Amino acid sequence: MLKHILTGALVILFAAGSPIAHAQEKAAYNFGDFKSSTLATKAWQALAANDLDAVLAYTNKCIEMYAGNAKQMQAELTEYPVGDDQKIFSYWALNDVATSLFIQGEAYRKAGKIEEAKAAFNQIISEYSFGQTYDVGNKAFWKPAEAAKEKLDMIAQGLDLDFGNMTSAYFVQKGWEALAKKDLKVLKAYVQKNLDMYGQRAREMQATLSEFPWESPEKIHSYWALNDVGTSLFQLGQGYRNAGMNDEAIATFKQLINEYGYGQCWDPQGWFWKPAEAAQQQIIEIEALK
Question: DSSP E strands: which ranges in 166-213?
Answer without folding.
Answer: none
